[in-house]
């Protein structure tokens, strides 16, 4: 259960939602005090060639827009509100969308605008930490905003650099698809680990029932609840994208987005099934624990029920009534065969009780 | 658990629903006997200027209507039925809507009328107390009715007074949006405290299981149930607003209302997830309590099972059969090594039982 | 728990559903053998005047139809099948609708016919007993059929007699609305009592946990389940009414029916929330009971675990091995400090066990 | 619980579903080896006259088709596959529909064909056994196939023979309605018995809690689950029928089918409510059992906690330390008032413990 | 419970979902390292004749396409990625579809393309192991891809070889139907075994309650959860197929696909009902176990409560207060009738307690 405290810590943070936005005017950008410094990187892509520049200045990046069929501008870290605003102005982004970029506890969603689409998703790293990813794409450009450096896009970068034909065909929608697909693909190892752990816990419960398993199942169930909170709106966002009718989103790319939606459905199915399984495991744990307790109580009852009456008899014959005063007192103790008779009586009682328990199937 | 009785008291009150309306003709306004005295305040807004007047007379307020592009008339306290009726007459409000204003246990909803929209919402203060907010907005005016002085609108007032351009553009729909947005924003601290408390309780359960945690979880779950009862219809009301086709509600303002709906969805998601988590915590508590009881019962069984038979043996040798009458009585007690033999027998029995428990994994 | 048996009795009766209709041809009216004698009463309404007659003959009542803009014919008690059939013939009612009038276990519903609408609702009296109300309304007439004398309509009667303008405007749809609104309004005190009792039970559980609370919660939950069985179809019926397009149902009256539907939604919300709360209370009760049992078992274990070993030792030193035969027998008992040593050993054991329990947090 | 094994046996059979169809080509009819011999009976109906013939040959029956406005051909028992195929050919039935007739584990459904409708329902007898009923109806004919002789149609037969006008009006759709209505009506006694039994069990649980009630509730809940499995698709089938647009199904008959659907809704409502109640009863049983156990454990604890320490004291004073060797040994036993002091000490301890239990509200 | 480990193993494997696809470009085919060698087999079908060839080369198979009205190309084993790609090129299949063929953890689905439909289903063998089946069908061809040799198609092969007219009519859609129908038919024995086992377990629980039944019910419930995960999307896929409007899918074949959908509905109904029943069985098991424990605890309490006080009395009279020092010490022990009096007192106490238990209905 090493992973458990970390998981809780992660959730703790997630619950401080939307704080900077409370009471502020809409569209006013306020940086999260814990935000990481912003850093721009840009790819210009087209015709098998590409230009990559990390740590670029915004104006330089915008200049590339005219030179390349598609540019991908990525902003890691959201502390520089001014930069975000300037990007917004350059690409004509809606103030509410920019506010959503900066307040990084948004639900995944897809907001259609006239000349671009805005998609919010959550990006998981292999350890299960998540950050918000905001994607804008329109004719000739894709913008991505992420909370921290480090992302799920390396496979896409490699394919750009290898000159993958579909990425170099000059359509920004396919690039946006590739990025979002990479984000969803990164969910699979996390879900795989969750479901695998539940499968293992099921074995462990049958092998060695232990109270320590309960918090872990509870923690997994909770992580899966949190994941569902992300997956369902992501699916809805992809659905909204599929129903979008804009020139910058071609029908053939929608086929690809449909494939991402299939992956989402698969994840939701697994999430649903395994959350249900986890709930079943807690019930199973409780039932098996109760069964173990019953076994213990049975033993206690059998031992007590046999020896308490016998002990009483022994106590009876241990009483100090004076046999010398009258023959009424302690008669058997003064008889020559008193002791063997007493032992015989006790044996008969014990055997009788054992037979009764046998009949009741308690032993 | 200081907060607990207060929460219950709040709910108690909420359940005395709609009382004044039972059996009364529709549209007949009856003041809640506990209603707070009414007080009007008004803002005239436009072109960067504004006029603010608190405790104004209705006729004066209505006079401002012709002078300013947008007026915002706020009525705090609903004891003055006559005032509400006169406002209704002045703005051509439907009697049923006025009835809903006065009976302050309405579900959040949006009723469209020909020349204005009527929105009912619930306003939470930071301690979680709620009051009904009724908003009417049409061409050039926004009316708000609230149960008590004290509201979530201070950020909006500040922005009006600072001359925020969108608020001064002369459109009442944007002002209505700003007010409703401020109301929904005020839910976040409340939800944040609920979810944070559940996270803490989870830690407490693992750290120090105590029966006192159960009522608190129950209370939180109940508060969240009550919140859901408000959130779901609020979302539906916003949805109805988004589908409304009226000249006084512009398409661009709908984008803003869509943002409020996103916030609602976020709150509902959190509410659903954490209610589910709270239910899981109660199960967890029960399972861990059962595990603790099992441990105690195990100890009881082990001690009893070992010492009850030994005690019986001691009792056996403590019986007062007269050894002088015959050699059958109490033979071992008269042997020189009887006592060490007895102790040895008891030790063997005790070790045997311990080995049995060890094998059964009970110790 | 005085109310409990009555509630069960009520439900028992409700389950003998539709009996008279089984196997009978559709439209054949068979009186319920327990039906109450029928009695007609009529109101002629219009232009501020009204004519009221109780215990009227059907032909007289029909004669009023030509004289008054709107007549309201109420039939209390359904034993006179012939009367129901004659009313059906006079107002051109469908045989299936008449069958539903007489078989008083119908689900609430709204059946639209060409020249009238047929609404089935259930009327609750303040003690929670229910009866079926069948309402027909068309151009110029409203018919109501109820199982028993005594109804929720007194507020409407008073308003007719006071000359309320909307009731006297000559539209039957508004009168039908007023009657149905009065029926739904009568649900509020019942729901209020249920929710109030649940709030009280929550307090009682925290104050003084008692097994007797469980059946009461169960009974309340069951009453609320039965109420939901009425509320949901009532809401659907009102919805069907709102979507109805007939000349005898004006758009402006639909606004009023929409208000009734709002009340229904409010009742359903409360019902859902409190049924959920009641289920939570049963869990809470079980958890707190288990906690109480655990406390008792803990005490039992502590006392047993301390005194059973000590008792064994006392028994050991109470054995009757003969110390005179050899020094091996009962050595300590013959030592001058044997007794204080024995007491000291016992004290050490007891303190050691107490320290162990302290460490385990059992005391 | 006499009825219980029978109910289980019934279910067992139901689960051997669709066996003959596995791996067979579609439309190939394979008789169930347990099928009952087929027997045709026919009614020719029209204009107040009717012709009834039981055990008729198919060709004779088809000959009646030209003579009578409506014929009703009923086939009881499905072992004669050839007969079913010849009927199918004569009435132009789809091979898949015939397959569904013969494989008697179909879900209730309604399949529309060009010139007839095909409805599958399940017919319950009063003891709760069910058989599949397949109904085809088109212009001038109604066909019914049932698994066994014995059905719910006797009321319809009587009405035909009495010359009921609507049945004699020459429309096959009304006859089909009358038959399906009779089938649904036959559900009411079964549901009535189930709900009545649950009401009784609730009383029994309060009167005399017994573990034997649990399996019966479980069995009832299971029967109701199975019934729901039939009711929901039956409702859907009736809904499909209501939306069907074919000349052989008149609008006015749809009103009647709507009435059957109302009955279905009523049954589903009851089924839902009582299944929920049954689940609540199991919880209630568990809670009350736990309460009873708690009471027993309380008694055990009180008795043990009082007498175990007292017994220890008695044992202490029963030890055989030799008082003659030193004054340290067993001092009180040699004092003249030792015995009354010991009794007094014990009484004080017992009273102290009783006071403690009183304070803790355990007694 | 022999079957249990196997079932778990199966699930373990299922959870390693989609692994090869993570991070890879869309449409890039990567063979599962555990994939079985690929083997083609082909049927040419038409006009009562057929040509069958197993282990054929792809080019030979494609050559048959021109000779026969319909060809069915089956590829068992998916290790040969090149072969899959060449088939994709020959039949103009979308790269994403081919990726789904190779990544064998897809959800069942139906993707429509312009000139063919793509259906993913899961094929169960009689032991409950599953493999992915990918079906493409368009004008004149059906392609099937399966993970391993061995499938559910033998009934279809036999019907082709017997010259079944509908299969030889030259329509690929009917062949696709026949194959998918065979796949769904193969679910019935698996579901039948699951439901039959639950029925048996219900009997076993009543006959001989044993903790070992709980894991088996849990395992069955889990298998049924996994089956539902397949059944629901299969139903949706069939629904999508029914709504498809393409020349290669004729209306009359849709009737047949509707029949497959009916079978799916039947399986889903059974799955839902029996999963609910299995959950009920776990509750039942817990309740009956608790009842058994209660019985044991009752016995323990009765025995303890009777004998512990009696034992205390015996101990009291066994104390060694010196009666010779004063008459206050041990008075009754020195009386001639002390012993019978003591026995009488004990008997009275025992009978009193038994009467008390009788009154409390504990014995």
UniProtKB/TrEMBL annotation, chains A, B, C, D, E:
Q: Name one GO molecular function term.
A: magnesium ion transmembrane transporter activity
GO CC annotation: plasma membrane
User: Which UniProt keywords are given for this protein, alphabetically ordered?
Assistant: Cell membrane, Ion transport, Magnesium, Membrane, Transmembrane, Transmembrane helix, Transport
Which InterPro entries did the record assign?
Answer: CorA_cytoplasmic_dom, CorA_TM1_TM2, Mg/Co-transport_prot_CorA, MgTranspt_CorA/ZnTranspt_ZntB
Q: Please report a single Pfam family linked to this protein.
A: CorA
- Topology class, membrane: Multi-pass membrane protein
Specify residue ranges for compositional bias: Basic residues: 1-16
**Location (main, coarse):** membrane
Identify its protein family. Belongs to the CorA metal ion transporter (MIT) (TC 1.A.35) family.
Its biological function?
Mediates influx of magnesium ions.
Please identify the protein, giving its name as recorded.
Magnesium transport protein CorA
Q: Which organism is it from?
A: Fulvimarina manganoxydans
Gene name tied to this protein: corA
């Amino acid at each position: 259960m090493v992973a458990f405290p970390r998981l809780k810590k992660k959730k703790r943070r997630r619950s401080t939602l939307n704080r900077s936005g409370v009471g502020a005017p809409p569209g006013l950008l306020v940086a999260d005090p814990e935000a990481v410094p912003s850093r721009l990187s840009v790819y210009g892509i087209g015709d098998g060639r590409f230009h990559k520049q990390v740590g670029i200045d915004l104006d330089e990046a915008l200049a590339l827009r005219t030179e390349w069929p598609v540019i991908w501008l990525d902003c890691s870290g959201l502390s520089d509100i001014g930069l975000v605003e300037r990007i917004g102005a350059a690409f004509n982004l809606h103030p509410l969308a920019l506010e959503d970029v900066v307040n990084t506890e948004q639900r995944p969603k897809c907001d259609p605008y006239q000349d671009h689409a805005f998609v919010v998703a959550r990006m998981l790293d292999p350890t299960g930490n998540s950050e918000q990813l905001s994607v804008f794409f329109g004719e000739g450009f894709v913008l991505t905003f992420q909370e921290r450096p480090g992302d799920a896009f390396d496979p896409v970068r490699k394919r750009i650099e290898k000159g993958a034909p579909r990425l170099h065909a000059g359509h920004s929608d396919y690039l946006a698809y590739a990025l979002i697909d990479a984000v969803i693909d990164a969910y699979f190892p996390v879900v795989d680990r969750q479901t695998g752990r539940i499968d293992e816990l099921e074995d462990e419960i049958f092998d060695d029932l232990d109270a320590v398993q309960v918090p872990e199942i509870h923690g997994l169930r909770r992580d899966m609840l949190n994941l569902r909170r992300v997956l369902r709106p992501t699916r809805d966002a992809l659905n909204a994208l599929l129903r979008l009718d804009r020139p910058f989103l071609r029908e053939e790319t929608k086929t690809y987005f449909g494939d991402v939606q299939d992956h989402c459905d698969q994840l939701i199915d697994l999430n649903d099934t395994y959350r249900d399984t986890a709930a079943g495991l807690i019930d199973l744990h409780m039932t098996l624990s109760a069964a173990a307790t019953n076994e213990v109580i049975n033993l206690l009852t059998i031992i007590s029920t046999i020896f308490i009456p016998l002990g009483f008899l022994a106590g009876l014959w241990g009483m100090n009534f004076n046999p010398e005063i009258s023959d009424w007192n302690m008669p058997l103790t003064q008889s020559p065969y008193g002791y063997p008779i007493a032992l015989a009586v006790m044996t008969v009682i014990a055997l009788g009780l054992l037979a009764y328990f046998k009949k009741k199937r308690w032993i």
